[in-house]
Amino acid sequence: MKIAILGSGESGVGAALLAKARGYDVFVSDKGEIKGEYKFKLQQAGIPYEEGQHTESRILDANEIIKSPGIPEKAPLVQEAYARQIPVISEIEFAGRYSKAKFICISGTNGKTTTTLLTYHLLKSAGLNVGLAGNIGESLAEKVIEDTYDYYVLELSSFQLDGMYSFKADIAVLLNITPDHLDRYNYSMENYALSKLRLTQNQTSEDYFIYNQEDPLIFQYFKPAAFAGQTIPFALEKREHAKAWFEGNKMVLGFAPGNATVSTENSPLIGKHNQYNSLAAVSVAKLLGLTEAQIEAALATFENAEHRLQKIGEADGVLYINDSKATNVEAVWFALEGIKQPIVWIAGGVDKGNDYETLKPFAKEKIKALICLGKDNEKLKTSFGGIVPEIRETQRVEEAVQMAKDLATAGDVVLLSPACASFDLFNNYEHRGHRFMEAVREIALKYS
Question: Which residues form the Mur ligase C-terminal domain (predicted)?
Answer without folding.
Answer: 307-420
